[in-house]
Amino acid sequence: MLYRLLVFGYGKVGRAFVNELSSRKNLLEDDYLISGIVTTKGVMKEVREQFSVDYHADPFTALNKESPDIIVDAMPGNYSDGEPSKSLYIEALKNGIHVITCNKAPLALFYWDIVRYVGKGKLGFQATVMSGTPSVNLYRIVGPLKVHSIRGILNSTTNFILTKMSEGLSYDEVLRMAVELGLAEPEPSLDISGIDAAAKLAILSNFILRKKITINDIHVEGVPKNPRGKMKLIAYADRDTAYVKPEEIESHDIFFNVNDSMNALTLKGDIQDITIIGVGGGPRSAALGMLSDLTLITRYRT
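^ that's the sequence the OP posted. Answer follows.
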């Protein structure tokens, strides 16, 4: 079956998604055609390495004009009101168009406002948490497990910084190193402050624990400049609480050897606990997360 995709955003992640989709066609059961790529500049109808405008339109005009089967959101997050992604998702879902996103902000702010429109149109958001390492999609396959709490290392940048500081490097040295390696943005405040991890925790808390919270309900502390011992920025939620804060980790803790840019997630359940460890960021990993959603949505159509 042929699916028409409309991609929003053509930065590092958007480009990675387009490239990986093209290079992995032989691994996908269905056929996919990118009918357009939308940025703030306008719409590009054919995939080209350098973005150029074929016609001018805002996201909603492009959605109506192209009438895709699936939209893919790789736009930057807007943590003030989640727009334009929030309204774009709702418009698409109401019209039976599937939505795949790596954009955390809309779901961290308005999860329940968005998912209430899921029906004929499905919503895939694996890439919002741990990118290509299954987190959202892990829970999709163990849904009968009653999860009591979520605990994770959900931000690659801060885990790298804390790992290197535990080895004796200074905060400024490590931050400079992280930027040079591409693990941190030149302005990494969302990571350092804990906001990025909190957004991911809000999404998981709503999806897995069925909490009715937003990122604004989570207690957040950022990375200390002078940590004691071996510390990790821990994201934790149960039925009563949700927080992101640095914690000293003991050697017997399962997260003790989750170092550098790796991420980890533990679901504490009634039958068993499940822990998954893997890469938690980067354009290709985010693209893998979105491709996994693409596969799940189109393979299981009923």
